[in-house]
Amino acid sequence: MKFEEYNISPEVKKSLEDQGFKKPTDIQYKAIPNILNGEDVLAIAQTGTGKTAAFAIPILHKMTMLYRVKGVKAVVMVPTHELAIQITEVFHELGKYTQVKTLGVFGGVEQEPQIKKLKQGVDIVIATPGRLFDLVSQGYLVLSGIQILVLDEADLMLDLGFYKDIRDLLRFLPRYRQTLFFSATINEKIKKLAYSIVRNPIRIQISPKDPVSKNVTHSVMNVSMDDKRYFLERLVKENPDKKILVFVRTKVRAERVFQAMERVGIKSLTMHSGKEQQDRLQVMTDFKNGVFKLLIATDVSSRGVDIPNVEYVVNYDLPDVAENYVHRVGRTGRGTKRGIAISFCSEEEKPLLKDIEVFMDKKVDVSDIENAEYEAILATTEELNTNWKQLMRDAEFEASNRKKKKK
Ligand code: ADP
Ligand code: MG
Q1: What pLDDT score does 405 carry?
Q2: What is the CATH number of domain 3-205?
Q3: Residue nearest to atom 25 of ligand 1 (CA)
Q4: What is the mean predicted confidence (pLDDT) over 266-289?
Q5: What separation, in Å, do the N-terminal and C-terminal C-alpha atoms of the chain show?
Q6: Do domains 3-205 and 216-369 have the same CATH topology?
Q7: Is 129 helix (H, G, I), strand (E, B) or coil?
Q8: Whether residue 220 has pLDDT greater than 80
Q9: Is residue 296 a contact partner of residue 271, using CB atoms and an 8 Å limit?
Q10: pLDDT, position 319
Q11: Of the candidates 183, 193, 136, 182, the residue with the CA atom closest to the CA atom of residue 160
């Protein structure tokens, strides 16, 4: 079934056509009719399969009939600023021929402009819980008219770090509403929690056997901790035109890898929670536009981020939360594109790999490299070579000094 045959507003159809979206993806095909029917939905579908439009299309359609009703009527909660911005853009794009107003509400930036927009009238809010809570408690945002609540990356939103915020916010929402959960991963505990905050029985949609998107070819490579940077250097130099997204465990590691790359003449960007919001925005724009082709990030970028044409994902460090493996490798192979993910696994990270395999209920392919090739990679690194040359120069300098002294 094509979008043109759907019973949705012509304005939304027109923008779908502009986007080049002709047919719904599986999750869109399954979720849209239920959402249009007003049912609560728990939708689990692999990364990059169009979950955003799966809720944006029916919500925008509903709002085309409701935009004359004053106040915020739908709220989408997301875990990061970047996701709030990205999803707001999708709503703007798909809603551009409608009268429906969507606003992104997230922290790290001044709240005044957001308040001003709210006063002018907003139908849909895409929010991170912290800022949403601030605006609600100051009375700038009223949630009592909410008809639809969406938790994107639902398992993370209902997990420890966010759960309290979400619970606090739920108190402000009407009990009779439609609630939608979307994610690529979920576990039994979180599923129970999700059921506990909704009224209707939830419809579970797509739950694939393999949580990693079929568009992603992924494998691990055994690399010792100290050699990882040489392997990354090699990958980057062999693929000068490719966009590469590298995940590391901490922000300190992100900066270290950045410096290691700089030493061998590779320019990159870093992305982590220690950066100012303005810088984070700039980084995302530069990486999106391909001004820089290498981004070194922590897990703040593992969830939901939709950057076009990321050809490689590198797990420079294995994630310590197993489901993040699925989210990280899911930053490539999005929509109809294919992608490659490679994980550098050191001896001490083997238990993490095991956790990941248990979580996915699947082994990860091992990309075998011969000893000779491993050595060859170390032999070609510019860092060791330049260090070597530098050592030679130092030695020569010292030798000539000694000679001078003797004279
Ligand atoms: P998810 O949330 O499932 O990880 P997104 O909603 O971010 O995935 O979408 C992934 C990509 O697929 C986006 O770049 C989006 O533009 C594209 N996409 C979404 N729906 C369709 C469709 N029906 N046809 C073609 N491409 C689509
Ligand atoms: Mg998503």
Answers
A1: 60
A2: 3.40.50.300
A3: 21
A4: 95
A5: 91
A6: yes
A7: helix
A8: yes
A9: yes
A10: 97
A11: 193
